[in-house]
Every structure is written in structure tokens, then in C-alpha cells.
Design a protein that fits this description.
The protein is an alpha/beta fold and about 550 residues long. It contains 20 helices and 23 strands. The chain folds into 3 domains: about 325 residues, Glycosidases (TIM Barrel, Alpha-Beta Barrel); about 50 residues, Oligo-1,6-glucosidase, Domain 2 (Oligo-1,6-glucosidase, domain 2, Alpha-Beta Complex), CATH 3.90.400.10; about 70 residues, Immunoglobulin-like. An 8-stranded parallel barrel has the order 1-2-5-10-12-13-14-15. It is globular and about 80 Å long.
């Protein structure tokens, strides 16, 4: 494998609206991010991915972009963005932006021009179909519920939107659309951006010609995945984008890829892959149901272990995968992957180590390093996220009670990850001096950065030690490039694996409250990390306390 500048890095995702508010308007902003760069540098972060802060109506929290060349005034100015890139560079850090090019906003200039002249140049920037009374062009269901087809204002046509109706899909079959995308990517890279996280990219290739699929709910519509499974030829678009943009700059790119076929992995993240890396979503999609969140199965510790190892076996040494516990589209990982009632500093540290030491690039989502948890919503009125509001309705329509429907929102709502970052125990978690756009999680009084910064036993301090271990010259070669070999796989509620390179490391986590013992094949040389103050051993037998995790040099 050709070694790249980003292989040994650690990445951190910022959701700008909820990170830090510098001017008291209740919304996080770019100056707020700049003021916290030293906090991230102290943690050991190298790469910072910003969720969208482009000009946007915020129908889908910035993933509906009305101007790819401007910063939304709510987040700051282009001068602020230039200063962020420069300040990050001073600290040897790289800024990534979100590349959202499956769709734009219905307030984008292109869409406005398509409405004015649907048969003209900009009409072909989108998927338009003639409107037929009582009949839709296809029976596909939007990711956010309802049909993917919406009337094009002022015309007798309809337009395609796989997501929100304010997010019309761009027609990637049109070379002029692709040229505009590449021009914008290069404009940002010329500014000094380190690269991009690529949003919802599999959706850019539709199965042509359009057709209906078997309905899977009472609404008579079909999940969009059925169409995507039939689509082929996306590599032509992605290879062209790579060659015209990222490759020329040696830029970093990470793909949000859900529907890749296994034989396509080398094409996506191999030696000349479309992207530098792609996220592992194996754990996040586990237990999902076509019926909706209310019907999703919980993930057990053994399920989590199986999901992680499945991905590691699939990827092998094809390339680098990016490992996550949570992101802006998922609930908090501590609440999701730790059995109910067992969230505590020890279990959060165990989850951190088991994920962080996997082969690949670790991504931390804001607040994850503090062990932030899901929100105990008391009413659907406290929820802002459009997908959560849709899933609440889906649950009620399926016969769930209001409490059952709300419980599914508590488990899976994207707002769990979007509540303000918990900086202090002061009012509004120290996020803003104004009224926050989304209410903070009430537990900020006990879970916050200020209380953890100088506490050597805090969750944040443990993450800092994990990052330092990954960068330690003595172990970096093994952790970054070494192989991963699962061990004791059939043991219930035990997740353990070797990392083998010029050293041999054993990572072992007791994924339950009850103690359990493991017998090592030989004595260990050194304890590199332990989330307990001590280790109980007798010869080569180690007794692991509840949720204890060990990283041992063998």
C-alpha cells in the first residue's frame, strides 16, 4: 500500500450549528469553531470535518445548499472560513467540508431558472417529468417519507427529490452538471481545504429508465434502495470526479457509502480508489427494519462485535475504512451500543478503545469524547429533525401508541447528536449566552468538557490517551498498518482482537457488568491502556472487571 499523509491521522466531526456560539444568537458559528481549535489540538485531532455551513434555507440543516460558493450568514462569513483554514494550518490541522452534490436547494439559482424555463438548459440540471393527473412518474418513497415527486412551481412538470422536497436531485447524467461540481470542488481546494466528506454519493446514479418497484408499505410506495440496487455505472462518475479534483491536489476524501457491492470495494478505496476512505456503517444499519424505527431490533454486544469483525474481514488490506461510533445522522453511540442502564465512564471508555483500535481511520463526533448520551425527550414537540418527525408519524400509522412512537424517537432521533456541545455546567451547557436553537441535554450539569479536561480518569482523558497511543512512534506502525486478527470470537460479551505488525498488541473488552476471565497464550509484556486502576492476573489468566478494556503489548 502506498502510504498517504492522512493514514496516521485522527479525525473529528463538527456540527457547526451545535458546536459553539460566539455571538449569542443561539446558533454555533465559524468564529466559535476557531475559538475551540486549541481544545481539539490538545485532544490530538488532525482532521476536522465540518457539516455544511454553506448558504442554505436549512430545510435539512444545511444539506440543502442554495449557494456552494458562500457561507450562510448564520455561521459567519467567507472571511471567517478563510481564517479557520489558516488557523487550522498553523496547528498542522486540516479542514474538510461536506460535499453535497446529489441535490441542491430549491432556492438555488439553477432550480429557479429551471422553474422559469423547464425545457431550457437548467431544466436538464434536474430530473423533470411531465405531470399526469392522478399518476406519479414512479412509486419511489423519499428518505423522509412520501413520494419523491413534487410539482415544479409554475409548470406542468414534476421534479425528483430523493430527500426533502426542498432538495431537488441534480441530474448527473448531464455533463454540464458534473462540470459545475468539479469547478466548485477545485475552487475550495485552491483555498487550502484539506478535502471533503462526500454526502449520500451512491444516490447520484439512478437506474434508467425509471420504473416502479413492488410496494413495501401501505402507502403503495417502494423504498428507494430497490432502485439503487438496480443502478449501475456510478464508477464512471466517481472516477471522473476523482481525476478532475481530489487526485490533482492529493486531497483527502471520505465517502458516505451505504450500498456498495463487495466486488466494488477496491474501486472505492483501493490503490486508485474513488475516495481516500469510506465510513463503516455496518453497526449503524444493524437491526434496521423497512417498516421504520419503531420496528428496529436493538443491537447486542455480540452483534456489535460481529458487525465490526465483518467489516474488517471484508476490507482486509484493500484500503482504509473510517470507523465511527456516531455522527450527525445517528443517535449517541454510548446510548446505542452499551446495554440499557450500563452507561458509565468505564463502559464508554471500553467502547472507545474497541472501536478506536480497529484497523482504519478513527472519526470522533463532537461530544463523543465526553461520553454524551441520548436525550430523554418528553414530547415530540421537543424534536426538530425532519426524519424523526416522519418516523414518529410512521409509528403512529402502524398502530403504535404515542409513548411507543416517542420511544423509537428517543432511541434513533438524529437530534440526539445535534443538541448543543456540552462545554460547562453553566446555563445552556456553556454553548451560548442566548437561547439555543435546540435545547441542551439536561445531563450537561454532570457531563461536560470543563469537568473532564483536568480529570485524568475522565472519558475525554481516555480518548486523549488512545490518540496518543496511535501516534506513539513505538506503536504507530502496528496500530496504523498492522493486521487485525479476532480472538475468542465465540465468547459471549467479550470482544477481543490482535493488532499485529512489528509489535503484537491485544485489545480485549469485557462487554458486560459481570466479571469474566481470559487465558493468554503467553505472558504480556506491558499494559498500554486500562480503563481501571489495576489489572487482576494469575499466571496467564486475566480476570476482567465489568466493562474493563485492556490494550496489552504481548
Amino acid at each position: 500500500m502506498n502510504r498517504k499523509w492522512w493514514h496516521d491521522k485522527v479525525a473529528y466531526q463538527i456540527y457547526p450549528k451545535s458546536f459553539y456560539d460566539s455571538n449569542g444568537d443561539g446558533i454555533g458559528d465559524i468564529p466559535g469553531i476557531i475559538s475551540k481549535l486549541d481544545y481539539l489540538k490538545d485532544l490530538g485531532i488532525d482532521i476536522i470535518w465540518l457539516s455544511p455551513c454553506y448558504r442554505s434555507p436549512l430545510a435539512d440543516q444545511g444539506y440543502d445548499i442554495s449557494d456552494y460558493y458562500d457561507i450562510d450568514p448564520r455561521f459567519g462569513t467567507m472571511e471567517d472560513m478563510d481564517r479557520l483554514i489558516a488557523e487550522a494550518k498553523k496547528r498542522d490541522m486540516y479542514i474538510l467540508m461536506d460535499l453535497v452534490v446529489n441535490h441542491c436547494s430549491d432556492e438555488h439559482e439553477w432550480f429557479k431558472k429551471a422553474c422559469e424555463d423547464p425545457d431550457g438548459k437548467y431544466g436538464n440540471f434536474f430530473y423533470l417529468r411531465d405531470k399526469k393527473e392522478g399518476e406519479l412518474p414512479t412509486n419511489w418513497r423519499s428518505y423522509f417519507g412520501g413520494s419523491v415527486w413534487e410539482d415544479l412551481p409554475g409548470t406542468n412538470k414534476q421534479y425528483l427529490h430523493l430527500f426533502h422536497k426542498k432538495q431537488p436531485d441534480l441530474n448527473w447524467e448531464n455533463p454540464e452538471v458534473r462540470e459545475e461540481v468539479y469547478k466548485n470542488i477545485n475552487w475550495w481546494l485552491d483555498k487550502g481545504l484539506g478535502g471533503f466528506r462526500i454526502d449520500a454519493i451512491i444516490n447520484i446514479k439512478k437506474a434508467l429508465p425509471f420504473r416502479d418497484y413492488e410496494p413495501d408499505r401501505a402507502d403503495g410506495l417502494s423504498h428507494i434502495d430497490k432502485m439503487l440496487e438496480e443502478a449501475s455505472g456510478i464508477g464512471d462518475f466517481l472516477g471522473e470526479m476523482r481525476d478532475r479534483t481530489f487526485k490533482k491536489y492529493d486531497a483527502f476524501s471520505v465517502g458516505e457509502v451505504f450500498n456498495e457491492k463487495e466486488d466494488e470495494l477496491p474501486d472505492f478505496i483501493g490503490e486508485n480508489g474513488y475516495f481516500s476512505t469510506m465510513f463503516d456503517f455496518n453497526e449503524t444499519i444493524f437491526g434496521s427494519s423497512p417498516n421504520g424505527w419503531y420496528d428496529a431490533a436493538p443491537i447486542t454486544p455480540d452483534d456489535y462485535k460481529k458487525c465490526c469483525f465483518e467489516t474488517q474481514r471484508k476490507i482486509k488490506d484493500t484500503g482504509f475504512v473510517s470507523n465511527i461510533i456516531e455522527n450527525h445522522d445517528e443517535p449517541r453511540g454510548a446510548s446505542r451500543y452499551i446495554p440499557e442502564g450500563d452507561c458509565c465512564p468505564e463502559s464508554k471508555k471500553m467502547l472507545a478503545a474497541l472501536n478506536f483500535m480497529l484497523r482504519g481511520l478513527p472519526f470522533i463526533y463532537q461530544g463523543q469524547e465526553l461520553g454524551m448520551e441520548n436525550v430523554p425527550f418528553s414530547s415530540i414537540d421537543e424534536v426538530d429533525d425532519i426524519s424523526s418527525l416522519d418516523q414518529y408519524k410512521v409509528a403512529l400509522d402502524a398502530g403504535c401508541t404515542e409513548e411507543e412512537a416517542l420511544n423509537s424517537i428517543r432511541r434513533f432521533s438524529r437530534d440526539n447528536a445535534r443538541t448543543p456541545m456540552q462545554w460547562t455546567s453553566e446555563e445552556n451547557a456553556g454553548f451560548t449566552t442566548g437561547t439555543p436553537w435546540l435545547k441542551p441535554n439536561p445531563n450537561y450539569v454532570s457531563i461536560n468538557a470543563s469537568s473532564q479536561l483536568d480529570d485524568p480518569d475522565s472519558v475525554r482523558s481516555f480518548y486523549k490517551k488512545l490518540i496518543a497511543l496511535r501516534k506513539n512512534p513505538e506503536y504507530k506502525e502496528t496500530i496504523v498498518y498492522g493486521s487485525l486478527e479476532p480472538v475468542w470470537e465465540d465468547r459471549h460479551n467479550l470482544m477481543a482482537y490482535y493488532r499485529k505488525g512489528d509489535k503484537t498488541l491485544l485489545v480485549a473488552g469485557n462487554y458486560q457488568r459481570e466479571v469474566q476471565s481470559v487465558t493468554l497464550p503467553s505472558p504480556y509484556r506491558r499494559v498500554l491502556l486500562n480503563n481501571y486502576p489495576d489489572i487482576e492476573t494469575e499466571d496467564t489468566v486475566i480476570t476482567l472487571y465489568g466493562y474493563q478494556v485492556l490494550i496489552l503489548e504481548m
